[in-house]
Amino acid sequence: MLKILIIEDEEPATNRLMKMIxxxxxxxxxxxxxxxxxxxxxxxxxxxMPDLLFSDIQLGDGTxxxxxxxxTVTCPxxxxxAFDQYAIEAFKVxxxxxxxxxxxxxxxxAALAKFKNNRQPGNVFDISKLLESYNSKPAAFKTRFIVxxxxxxxxxxxxxxxxFYTEDKVTFLTTFEGRRFAIDFNLDSLESQLEPKSFxxxxxxxxxxxxxxSEMFAYTKSRVLIxxxxxxxxxxxxxxxxxxxxxxxxxxGG
Length: 254
Fold this sequence. Notes:
alpha/beta; Rossmann fold; CATH 2.40.50.1020; 2 domains; 5-stranded antiparallel sheet; 8 helices
């Protein structure tokens, strides 16, 4: 039976991947789903190596490459990512498979078939070449996101996005046209992927574009009340601990 570990920090994305794996490959054992660099390192130190690893790249406390620098991972990896094109090219060069988010069942099926066809007893996977390629060039900030609605797939340019927010543990992006799409990222990972001069995390729930600010008002305890365009259903107030950095960001873009 194929033993699989999942590293993913978005619960909806984890649940979707687990469901799809069971549908595509019923004879699998899902060993665990870990959600951070620290918990993944702990898991690898305390458990035998799985047969296959599915891993997101951007996690709440770092990247999956931080895991691979701490522990020796010898099993093949299928990355589940919406990462930059340079990293994808590195995966291709080093014969590592990847699935772009949002995941599609037929692509997952093809990746698992490729893994099984290439699997040889006693083979040890060498991730050092990927780490070397990844470290040789810094990742660029994201310029677009892939989104799905119904059976349709489209790309949203980052400069079309007014803000990101969370609701019921799901992350959404909202465009300046007022369209809303669910995405497989959390706000922690988005902060590291977006140009900091253009986007700022005002509180635990909202990450906004500088161009989405319509009006600002002084609020209690040095906080700032923001009116967004398009308008948000929730009240958008800069948290106390972020207020000072927010004012600096407004002044010079961080």
